[in-house]
Records
---
Amino acid sequence: MSVFNALQQQAFNLARKALRIGSNFAHPVSDDRAGEPDYLNTDQENTNTLLSQKQRLPHVEEWGAQMPTTTFIDPETGLLTTKTESAAPLDEGTSIYDLYADRAARMGDDPLYTYKENDKWVTKTANQFLQEVRDAAKGLMHYGLRKGDAVALMCKTSYEWDVTDAAVMACGGVLATIYDTDSAEQIRNIVNNSDSRFLIVETTDMRDKADGAIEECPSLERIICIETGGLAELQAFGYAVSDDELDARIDSVKKTDLCSIVYTSGSTAAPKGVEMTHEHYCTTALNLPVYLPNLLSEKDGSVLLFLPQAHSFARAINYIVVASTLRIYIAQGIPTLISDLQVAKPTVMIVVPRVLEKVYNAASQKAGHGAKGLAFQGAVVTAQQYMKEVQEFGDAKALTKARRTAYDPLVYRPLRQALGGRARWIVAGGAPLDPELLSFFRGAGVPVYEGYGLTETTAPCAFTPIGVPFREGSVGIAFPAFTLRIASDGEVQIKGTCVFHKYHKNDEATETSFTKDGWYATGDLGRIDDDGMLYITGRKKDLIITAGGKNVAPGPIEEMIKRCELVSQALVLGDKRPFISALVTLDEETLRNWLKLKGLDATMSMEEAANNAVVRAEVQKFIDLANEGVSRAESVRKFIILPEEFTQENGLMTASMKIIRPRVIKRYTTLLNTQMYTTRKK
């Protein structure tokens, strides 16, 4: 090492010491972070025993307006339970259409939706939107849509999505949601399962995917393409139906009527649809503005929607905002998110963790590895230390506050400006958020809060409202109208007005999803502290949730890969990861014969075979077949062939020949972090 390099390294080390950056500093998020196994660590999670909590409970906190949260031990079950009260019950005739009608009555001439059309931002008032909805609803009635009939919708989050959804709701229809990235097979599965009479698609490409569906789906009568004027034509036909006829249909809709079937599986197996009612969505929508009046009654407040509304999370948020006074901006998509943020300048944002990871990674890469990079690392450590002290002592120490203030113009303020500069409440959901990343953002003055929910609970069943004390790793308290409990095995179980009643045409799945006393069994493991804060500690089932929030059932994909004669086992991974991947093992006996037939060296080692280009090409064929029946978000992007199988001997398989997923992940953590999920170089 030269004298210059030695001096440079010495200066670098001194700077790290001065900035209190440890030698083991690691960014709180990156594409190659370690994948921890998703199961409950009993030793860590049982620190607050039920016995000690009994002595401190019940405990009541009023975090929101006149809706107290009570944490207690249920005298009947002996289980730790927490609940947040609800606003008054809905009238029997309340429907989703009423949310829009009420918004028009309150703020008819004020902006409701702003979106990009032909490269220009367009704004529609609540009155304009309601009229377009009524025209489309009358058009659906003219086409013969009856109350209770299903309409399948395949469309990205857009103004047209909201018009179509509200129109179907107005005439008592049932909306079956299809992701805009779903495959042709998934389209047909959903249309058939929902018995949809109409299929509305956004683009001609989507229409091409649906080509032939009318012949293959017995219930399907008509395909409407928005891009070629289908929605405008529908609205034009509304002239044939009177306002009185539409109003009579609207009045016939009850809160308990089925309004949507939301599909969660995303696999090639028979789709599993969650039945949602008007009451589910309206209760969620009307409770939150009452609970958070200061945040959701701002006349100049706004929200930017960009998550897919085919998912209950974004759809529920849309309804909540309609019930508030906030203005809704609709983003063009993830690629334009940063520029859209500068237009919308949202006070409220709903994100998945992957978006926050991208924001962090962009800031880190921009800082680089020199002096700016060192300053960025110091800012990360300071922000995290600030939140640690806030959690432990109620306030940060003077020195930490001073450091935080010093970093603000260099690191923290640019982050806040990148998110529009006005954010007051950024809610992350859909997938777990790294607690260290959350601490950084909160310490940097970026108001990120975590929530928890499922399609089966109309999205949010736990959330972190403004004013709740910071608890690292917590997803918050029970959402209004929900009761949460921890079962004896650590499972999070839920009751409430907004919990679904059944899966569509799937009595078996419905029965296994509820306990004998009627609680929804989530399959997630967790704990609740004395303040009613919920912590998710793992998953009972193998359902994968990617970092982008996409639910992926690995079974059907694994089955397709295993159809390759060379493959003995396949394990699909991707929980909390940026994409889906697979670990594959080879059947040695079959492999030897196959190599001989191909004129290859049949005596090569398993390590050589795992890396052989011809072997990999053969496995790739079946990876491609598996990918054909799923969306891109569910597709296997990368795979590694292992030189050994999962066996009882190496501890990776049970006696009943089931692969122990957490142990496989733990065993191959280094491989996954260094070869499967690596930082993308620019």
---
Amino acid sequence: MVKSEPKKKPQFGGFFQRFFRKSEKSQKEQRLTVQRSIPYLEMGRDGICRVEEHLYSKTVRFYDINYQLAQNEDKNTIFESWCDFLNYFDSSIRFQLSFINHKSDMSEYNKVIQIEPQHDQFDDVRMEYAQMLKQQLAKGNNGLVRTKYITFSIEAKSVKEAKPRLERIETDILNNFKVLGVKAYPLNGVERLQIMYEMFHQEEERKFEFSYDRILQSGMTTKDFIAPTSFLFKSGKDFQMGDTIGAVSYLNILAPELTDKVLAEFLDMDKNLVVSIHVQSVDQLKAIKLIKGKITDLDRMKIEEQKKAVRSGYDMEIIPSDLATYGGEAKKILDDLQSRNERMFLITVLFLNAAKTKQELDSAVFQTAGIAQKFNCTLNRLDYMQEQGLMSSLPLANNLVPIKRALTTTSTAIFVPFTTQELFMEGDSLYYGLNAVSNNMIMADRKQLKNPNGLILGTPGSGKSFSAKREMTNVFFTTTDDIIIADPEGEYYPLVEALGGQVIHISSTSRDYINPMDINLNYADDDNPLGMSDDFDMVALETVNNQYLGGDTSLACSAETQTQIDKQVVSLVKSQHEKALGILKENRAKLDETAAYLYDKETITGEEFMRILNA
């Protein structure tokens, strides 16, 4: 931080003074640095920022939930909870909602959809599948990262006084987000600095590298790590930071009513965009007093218009329509503040567009203005206030733009910050389609979920079997996981054979058998031990006694039947033993080859054993 030195009196006066005094221009150039333009004083490790001498702020990042696709009843519930969330903030807390769309490195997404070859006859299919995933990735906006933050600030004499109150507000915010079903967490100092770095370097690919240890080693400040190479606010319509050209505009709300899709429309743009909504709650008593004062002024103006009408000789009921309209709206707002759970907020909505060239910037601003016009609003440039607009767009909860609009809780909550939840997981993720709202890819790894199980429900002919087959083929082509299918109807064995799998038929007459020596004799309470011979077939020969007091079993047959059971078990064991010996003798050469492999390698995997066996 640069501290200004106290001015020293010149040693010489009169004629010699102008030779020893620094010019005002050189002093001004020394003060105007990029770092000094960034409007905060200190950024702590714990994420507490000293914005001004007695102003401190913290930031919480929150994620999206499915709002646009929800049913109307669920939407109403979310909207009411969001209104309660806004009413939490009193007049002593300033807060700012920040929505940042910025481009990310596509290599991270390509790593997720990349399919590694497994060196078998299906590698060509895998490569074709990977190409299809790349085409689907290009259709969506997965290359555009959308992040959402809420920054709140309070006034305090010192950081020691501000810290406990900020932590209490942070806990309340996290609990309110939890009620909404929104995942959220507070940011530390490095994460907050990274946000500002990415805002100042939107068109640069160099990653943010910073640690607080480097400050001690280099003697620099946190601003030195996030500042661009230069700021140029020469034009009143736009500005330049480094190699990026930007422009800040504010939303002029003209519509009497807005829909809850207005913010989602802006965030759906596929360009770099920062939307900042500064919100300042007005004390309830002051708000009511303000509205009453406005109503009194309107009534006085109405009386004056009626006096003019009487003096002019026409009907006194004929008054300007604006007075009648504004008077009715003011009374409605007063009724909302007094009888409903409504507060008054002063809000400022700012839009920061950035691009590499002036032409791209004008195109982005024009697209943003078109969306505003769609909702009967206008997007106006901050003429000769671009620096204040840029610094107000930083997530510091410090609004430097004096343009504000008074709205009630319901009107403020119409800027619902939720659209749709994205699902793009890393690891062995499977492709499940495109998001209906954002058109982004849905990639999920069920093994990372708390409950990896799935259930396919549907009416007859709706595609339940097809969905199951698609899940199996996705797992087969993209992972090395084992796939075990229990298929009592024999519906999936053609797919298994086509993919080179093994089909095992288990029945009393099949060639495949289950080794009775592998059966667990400690049956569960609801299991029944079954006979495994042609004489007894699938007959229960045991009963469970005292199911809730130990669950011991006993044979439910005569002594002669028990003797026959023992003979059948001995016969089954002998026949299977002979069968096992026959299999081993038939595959003696394979066993010798396997033994030689183990003698050389000591261990062998299942795939290596099957390769030797099938060779």
---
Amino acid sequence: MAPSRLALAVSAALALGVAATDARAQQSKARIEGVADEELLEAIQRAVGEAKTPATTRFEARRRARAAADDAIAALRTQGYYGYEVEPDVVDPDDDEGGAPPRAVIKVTPGPRFRFAGAGVAWVGEEPSPEVVISADQAMAIRRGAPGRAADVLAAEGRIVAAIQKRGYADAGPAPREVIVDHADHTVRPTFRIEAGELVHMDGLTLREIGRTNADWLRGLAPWEEGDVYDPEDIAELERRLLDTGAYDSVAVSLQPKTAADAQGRRPVLVTVTDRARRTLEISAGYSTSEGAGFDLRRTRYNRFGRADTTTYTLRLAELEQRFEGKLALPHWRRPQQTLTMLAGVYNERTDAYDAAGVMANADVTRRFGRTTALTAASTYVTAGISLDASRSAEKRRVNNVTVRDQERSIFTVAVLGAAALDRSNDPLNPTKGWRVEARGEPTATLGDVQALYLKAQAQGTMYFSLDEEAKTVLAGRLKFGTIGGAVVDEVAAPRRFYAGGGGSVRGYGWQAVGPRLSDNTPQGGLSLLETSFEVRRQITERWGAVAFVDAGAVGTDSFPTGDDYSVGAGVGVRYNLGFGPIRADIAMPLNKRKGDADFQIYISIGQAF
């Protein structure tokens, strides 16, 4: 670029920047003068706010200046400045400003910042137990010498009340507090006047508008016994247990007032639930160059048996797989936070490695430990179950340097499942921080044309780390390992071996393309698996994001993959946030390409890769 053009471009950019800055300044309700502290100035500016249009008359400008002065005083007190002077004013434009409108101005002298010189609690009415008094003092947490912010006074009062309520005083509340602001020594001394009320004991549930839900089942979800001391977390826990089922549009749980107490003084808890639509129909689709297109139709019915149950019928039609399944989930089965899931279905699979068709059924019980948490995935699960599978399958083999389809084998498989999962991430579909760990073991026996007894074990861990407070940039990593012990490859039915490659595994490679292959690239599967992934996720706009990633994996014919088994792929992708989770589209290339591997693979699905 020529020097003159460069200078012109820089000048134009500076002019636009100055114009934009001036436009933003004119949008402020009032110009603020006399504040040197940037943090305080920003707080006052937020309190004053902006105006859509400039004032057109002196009367309007003065009205805005007075309103801005009131807002500035509130901001000063919030930040601990009580010896302030705030003067609203109107500034007329200069003659050379071409008839610009008058401007509202506030002249601020903040004065010294006041500090806390102590705080206390004064009880209104009967004082609660000594333990509660100590808890209230500890919850106050006002440090001597800290800035005397009005917001900190309000927050301390809220903590005190919450601490008292937590210990059974449900009606605890604040009376008008006393705050001494001493202008002589620039100190603040708050005294919180608290009325604790009586210790409250809880009764059972009062059910109102519970729709199709069985009343006895609902009563069994209460995390307290009749006569227990009130705990607000128990109320919240019951509400979360009901919401976690997914069967309700809304749930409300609240302690009844004193007037509803029984002869022993116990107060019932009112529960109201609103059923979600009885039936839903969902349609989804996905595509990858390795697996082709897939179509899913899911019909769900809620609360058929009156216990927040979910019945789901799923039809999957894809190039490699066709499947129809029915599943029944019974949340809080026999005890709270325990789910019984039963599933049965038929399937037909036609992959490069094998062909299989059969029927299957399984049942498992998942126990969730600890308090549930709203809007997060922080959970600990333990699962035990059993599965049955009857199939006819055939795999490809190499005979006299020729790949042939082996004869079909009838196999009946019985497997027992034991699994555990710890989820400390902040979102099930789009995590930005935290971690997840899961492990599962399946003692398995096969009968029929293949008879074997072996243990299939897998473990996986993922971690998410945000580089900034807004989680605009997130680092994500995954490590997975699996092994089959007690059998050789030929004794393990092809569908139950380990495979790698594809959108949820090692991107850049085809479905099942990582690991041992025949000379015509037919996957064989193996007895061991190792996968790892690393992603850099960047949110660009509210809806759009981008990803760069590297995946690596190996499948071995022994208990652990060897160095020759590893394959590495790398690529980039885009994400579009739907609100509940992202749609992802990735393109990846194999970095150690073998004969038969495509130059790249494309994957489209819902949710992050891991």
---
Amino acid sequence: MKQISGNKLLVKALKEEGVEYLFGYPGACTIDISDELYKQDDVKIILPRHEQALVHEADAYARTTGKVGVCLVTSGPGATNLVTGLATANYDSVPLVCFTGQVARHLIGNEMAELGSAEYPKNVNIRGYKPNTDVHIGQLKRAIKLLNKAKRPLFLAGGGVVISRAHEIFREVVEKTKVPVVTTVMGKGSIPTDHPLYIGNLGMHGAYAANMAVSNCDLLFSIGTRFNDRITGKLHEFAPHAQIVHIDIDTASISRNIQVDIPIVSDAKEAITKMNEYVQECSTGKWLGQISQWKEEHPLKMRPNDVLSPMDILKEINEQFENSIIVTDVGQHQMLVSQYAEITEGKQMIMSGGLGTMGYGLPGGIGAKIGNPDRPVIVISGDGGVQMNIQELATAVLEELPVILCIFNNEYLGMVRQWQKLFYGKRYAMTNLRAGALSRRTEGMEYPQYTPDFIKLAESYRAKGIRVTKKEEIAAAFKEAKKNTKAPTVIEFIIDPEEMVYPMIKPGGTLEDMIMDC
């Protein structure tokens, strides 16, 4: 049998698998692979400025295209710098393949030759990885029987519906049954947010009507969610009147946090497609009337404000950008986007939902734009999170990616500050991003100017920088950014640090323990 080197075999495998982009950073232990990649043109190489950013870029590429994100880094710190990104992808069920270098085999006590078979395998079996995608029809029919009997049924759509790209078939099922829908943050967009049967997100910063619907439903039909503490609140009081159906591809996720009545292990799209063959219209008229009343009593809205507010910015994004991809970092802005961004047909929203990784936003936007060059990509980040991977402006500039980076600058780590304001007596420990030697020396009486100047920083990378301080400037800023078609645009929005995210569930509270404002 013909033998080829491992380097050539790796490149051959990339081509055989149809890999279009590889996000890589070189080192001594991968230099031979880099050399082999240099000799071909099929796989395009993206060279970011940090391995953590690299894996986030591959992650967002995968989320927005449905393809697999592929990474290549060297040994040692190159590999360890991937860890946060791998955890981010793992929590959100994003498909990545990451290759790392290793020291020579004889240095780790193994003299095996670096040769492999030139024959490419048709099937690969990985021990311990045998996901079940087929639907157990008996269990599914039991679940549908409960759905038909329920007086207050509710669909809970999680990230699994989005990842499996089940949007259209899920919408069909919803419209056929007339059953209302709540979503997790990761599930937002599984049904258009302007659909009459969509209530909103549930959980810690969920809509009042969505949380009340979960607390009062008699059947919670959940698809593709892990029931983490951000959506359940106090576990033993979650959906207290409901029987629970749980469809998830991961067996370990079922009944791990919430005990369910009917478990179904299956790919979300496969299960929903099969459901569509059996479901029928449910009697939900009275239930929908109650939900409408909750919406009217406590609509999701921010307090009117004469100065620039996040709501003004998101309203403009909703109006100006069609068929767009919105990428968020992690923090207050992320929750505001999950509340107010209109994810209608043709739009997509991605973020680090499970792990909550600050620094995801900008590299996520780069990966999304590489995978979707014809769609507008808007990144929304706080002034804290954006600085964790700000060096990726260089990648965006060199790859000629017209990503629009919106920085909500409130001079604080806003989400932590909100908790400090509400629950820690306004003791703002370690959250003021202007704090340092001067504030210590003057016991908090004086602070220097904010660092960095994001506009000058953007310009130093040869990106465009725009600062917005008034709501009247928002529309013009986005129109100007649209003209910049070969480079990123940074728009810094100066936000009042007193802007809060409401509703909010008290820590350890139930879905009904909502702080509506203060």
